[in-house]
Amino acid sequence: MHVAVGSTNPVKVRAVEQTLERFQPRVTAHAVDSGVAEQPRSVEETVTGAETRARRALEATGGDYGVGLEGGVARIDGVSGLSLIMWAAVTDGTRLEHGGGPTLALPDDVTRRLEAGEELGPIMDDRHDTDGIAQSEGAAGVLTAGLTNRSQALGEALACAFGPFVVEGILTDHR
Ligand SMILES: O=P(O)(O)OP(=O)(O)OP(=O)(O)OC[C@H]1O[C@@H](n2cnc3c(O)ncnc32)[C@H](O)[C@@H]1O
Ligand SMILES: [Mg+2]
């Protein structure tokens, strides 16, 4: 089973490898354009970015599945400030499935900086004196003191998007 990921960010590739481990997939990473802003700012924009990455990764390779993972920020009803959200999309070239990952309410100072136009990755690096935290534990790791991390969180989104392909037996030939 060849799974093409629409990103070269190692946390995204690891999320796919870890979540789909039981299928022992060949996972390849592809730098594709998400087609949305580098910092998506709504659920819709985040989902669209994930879809576009999934489609383009599959087109680039002709693999079995294309996977798109996208992070964004959005307002969630009942939660103050902005929240970090993440969405996954998986396609086999015919079907397209979606899954959401954990949501993290962001601290007020982070929300203010996002509203002033900054991106989350650089904000978190500045705030925590790190370099490229979006490619390691991520905001999910820092804001939970390691109770989760970006790979694990993205993996939950992927599991939800990949589930329908497994449940309906489409993977039978690959197991
Ligand atoms: O190479 P790509 O796949 O684009 O990897 P990325 O880290 O930029 O990931 P996204 O484009 O999906 O994320 C959109 C923005 O949100 C930021 N972001 C998302 N999740 C984050 C996290 O857990 N920690 C820090 N920044 C995060 C990220 O740095 C981007 O500015
Ligand atoms: Mg990006």
UniProtKB/TrEMBL annotation:
<keyword id="KW-0479">Metal-binding</keyword>
<comment type="similarity">
    <text>Belongs to the YjjX NTPase family.</text>
</comment>
<keyword id="KW-0460">Magnesium</keyword>
<dbReference type="InterPro" id="IPR026533">
    <property type="entry name" value="NTPase/PRRC1"/>
</dbReference>
<dbReference type="GO" id="GO:0103023">
    <property type="term" value="F:ITPase activity"/>
</dbReference>
<feature type="binding site">
    <location>
        <begin position="7"/>
        <end position="12"/>
    </location>
    <ligand>
        <name>substrate</name>
    </ligand>
</feature>
<dbReference type="GO" id="GO:0009117">
    <property type="term" value="P:nucleotide metabolic process"/>
</dbReference>
<dbReference type="InterPro" id="IPR002786">
    <property type="entry name" value="Non_canon_purine_NTPase"/>
</dbReference>
<feature type="domain" description="Non-canonical purine NTP phosphatase/PRRC1">
    <location>
        <begin position="6"/>
        <end position="166"/>
    </location>
</feature>
<keyword id="KW-0464">Manganese</keyword>
<dbReference type="GO" id="GO:0046872">
    <property type="term" value="F:metal ion binding"/>
</dbReference>
<dbReference type="InterPro" id="IPR050299">
    <property type="entry name" value="YjjX_NTPase"/>
</dbReference>
<keyword id="KW-0378">Hydrolase</keyword>
<protein>
    <recommendedName>
        <fullName>Probable inosine/xanthosine triphosphatase</fullName>
        <ecNumber>3.6.1.73</ecNumber>
    </recommendedName>
</protein>
<dbReference type="InterPro" id="IPR029001">
    <property type="entry name" value="ITPase-like_fam"/>
</dbReference>
<feature type="binding site">
    <location>
        <position position="33"/>
    </location>
    <ligand>
        <name>Mg(2+)</name>
    </ligand>
</feature>
<dbReference type="Pfam" id="PF01931">
    <property type="entry name" value="NTPase_I-T"/>
</dbReference>
<comment type="function">
    <text>Phosphatase that hydrolyzes non-canonical purine nucleotides such as XTP and ITP to their respective diphosphate derivatives. Probably excludes non-canonical purines from DNA/RNA precursor pool, thus preventing their incorporation into DNA/RNA and avoiding chromosomal lesions.</text>
</comment>
<dbReference type="GO" id="GO:0000166">
    <property type="term" value="F:nucleotide binding"/>
</dbReference>
<keyword id="KW-0547">Nucleotide-binding</keyword>
<keyword id="KW-0546">Nucleotide metabolism</keyword>
<comment type="subunit">
    <text>Homodimer.</text>
</comment>
